[in-house]
């Protein structure tokens, strides 16, 4: 199984704003005072377009789908939370915490991918768990080490343990389960998505170990990464707040590896960390300030990796 892909799906926003329904447990979201909603959306669109251009310029195959005005989906720019694509042709659909995010799941997106030559064999649908109040938000909640058949998950209100284990059984992954925290108003609170504090590359892992308060869990996560010969690159909680954990390794022209992140994430890294990362992949960064502030998600969240076979 490949760990990285050349193909990604991205959703261009039409009514992006701070989503009040997700702000209850996404402590990275901020209100941008004095900006009209139309201005916020225009800035987000501009950031989105520049980001897509940068990816395409290095040979990443980006499928861009425009969001629709109805229904109202302010977070549609983060498709990796509701869908994941797998090498055997499986597509997984995930249960979402925020009611207004559930409408992001659009069947016609699958039709568009099939029109582009991607092959979908089977849809594994976990969305009925929403009715019982259980959630698992795609590759936001679960980090897949596809090559080594391991899945990492920091439990939170948006990542249910039983559902995660069910996913691992269905897709044949060994579960690595822990809890990750951030300090909010001097209180330790669960981080809403694993991919904010951790990134898995082919030959490396970026992780904030300080977020894992339990020493045994910390050691267990580290042991799992080292067992698969990942170079572990540590980041601080302050860097997590700048979305330095929210990165994704993709492939460009001639299978060249790129590590994609926001400008804020890139700027927060030390020269030593940059040198460590550049041994594995070339860094590609783009300014996503509005999207990160209002959406509470960064570069990684905006890209749903497509591993489907092609005709």
TrEMBL record:
Segment forming the signal sequence: none
Domain of life: Bacteria
Cross-referenced InterPro entries: Amdntrnsf_FN0238 (IPR014541)
Pfam families cross-referenced by the UniProt entry: DDAH_eukar
Alphabetized NCBIfam families for the sequence: citrull_CtlX
Name of the protein in its database record: Arginine deiminase-related protein
Taxonomic source organism: Flavobacterium pygoscelis
Lineage: Bacteria, Pseudomonadati, Bacteroidota, Flavobacteriia, Flavobacteriales
């Amino acid at each position: 199984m490949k760990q990285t892909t050349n193909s990604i799906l991205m959703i261009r926003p039409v009514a992006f704003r701070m989503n009040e329904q997700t702000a209850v447990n996404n402590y990275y979201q901020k209100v941008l005072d004095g900006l009209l909603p139309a201005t916020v959306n225009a800035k987000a669109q501009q950031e989105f377009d520049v980001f897509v251009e940068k990816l395409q310029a290095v040979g990443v195959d980006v499928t861009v789908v425009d969001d629709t005005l109805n229904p109202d989906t302010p977070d549609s720019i983060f498709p990796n939370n509701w869908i994941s694509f797998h090498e055997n042709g499986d597509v997984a659909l995930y249960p979402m915490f925020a009611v207004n995010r559930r409408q992001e799941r659009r069947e016609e997106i699958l039709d568009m991918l099939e029109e582009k030559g991607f092959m979908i064999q089977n849809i594994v649908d976990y969305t009925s768990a929403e009715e019982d109040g259980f959630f698992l938000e795609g590759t936001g909640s679960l980090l897949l080490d596809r090559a080594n058949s391991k899945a990492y998950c920091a439990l939170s209100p948006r990542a249910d343990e039983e559902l995660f284990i069910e996913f691992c059984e269905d897709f044949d992954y060994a579960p690595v389960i822990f809890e990750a925290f951030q300090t909010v108003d001097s209180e330790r609170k669960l981080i809403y998505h694993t991919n904010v504090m951790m990134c898995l590359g082919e030959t490396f892992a970026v992780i904030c170990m300080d977020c894992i308060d339990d020493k045994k869990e910390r050691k267990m996560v580290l042991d799992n990464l080292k067992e698969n010969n990942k170079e572990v690159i540590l980041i601080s909680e302050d860097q997590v707040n700048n979305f330095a954990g929210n990165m994704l390794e993709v492939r460009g022209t001639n299978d060249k590896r790129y590590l994609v992140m926001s400008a804020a994430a890139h700027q927060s890294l030390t020269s030593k960390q940059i040198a460590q990362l550049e041994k594995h992949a070339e860094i590609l960064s783009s300014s996503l300030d509005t999207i990160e502030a209002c959406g509470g998600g960064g570069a990684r969240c905006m890209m749903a990796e497509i591993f489907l076979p092609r005709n």
